[in-house]
Fold this sequence. Notes:
The complex is a heterodimer. Chain A has strands at about 5, 10-15, 20-25, 35-40, 45-50, 55, 60-65, 70-75, 85-90, 95-100, 100-105. Chain A is mostly beta strands. In chain A, strand 9 (about 85-90) and strand 10 form a beta hairpin. Chain A is globular. By secondary structure, chain B is mainly β. A 6-stranded mixed β-sheet of chain B has the order 2-10-9-4-5-6, with no helix packed on it. A 4-stranded antiparallel β-sheet of chain B has the order 1-3-8-7, with no helix packed on it. In chain B, a hairpin with a 6-residue loop joins strand 4 and strand 5 (about 45-50). Chain B is globular, with a radius of gyration of 14 Å. Chain B starts with a strand and ends with a strand. At the A-B interface, strand 5 and strand 10 of A face strand 5 of B.
Amino acid sequence: EILMTQSPATLSVSLGETATLSCRATQSVGANLAWYRQTPGQAPRLVIYGASTRAAGIPDRFTGSGSGTEFALTISGLQSEDFAVFYCQQYNRWPRTFGQGTRVEIK
Amino acid sequence: VQLVQSGGEVKKPGASVNVSCETSGYSFATYGISWVRQAPGKGPEWMGWVSTYNGNTNYAQKFQGRVTMTRDTSTNTAYMELRSLTSDDTAVYFCARDSPGSLWYYPFDSWGQGTLVTVSS
Lengths: 107, 121
């Protein structure tokens, strides 16, 4: 099983600033890495897939990067709807596995 | 694309639960369905996958022997049954659109709204 580790667990950021979230896999997943955003009471929503491709309707302030075992999600110009929990997920192998999440909170 | 799940359930320990996921807006048999659960305050946990094309399944080892995933192509609906429930199974259960098989690599691009399953005596 591929384990996904996210850091930090919590990120405190001011509105308009930039947040960088990290995700590491215990073995290579190539570019088969997705990021999801989840707000309370909602299902996760796909933000980035293929490590760097924005999903439909996702603004260009979201940037995904990395390949293999090291990945990052950068959110520029944070807006109120970006304060949420973000999860990375590998879909290179079964079982699909998720990171434990990074909570982005308002500073 | 829409995935609409059945309503919340309250079950006693030892019971079974069935959750349905009715899909619309796309060709059902061209994507698989994965089931993911999320315990209170925890991250998502993948439970398994069902092929909507031929009914093949792939279950997480943790749930082997306790879960069954099926689909009905006449109603474009996927089902997940979890047996021998304990309080540790209290969680929100989601269905999500996934790849049609192991040769494809798809993220979960559409999700159901979630079904809260509460296990309590």
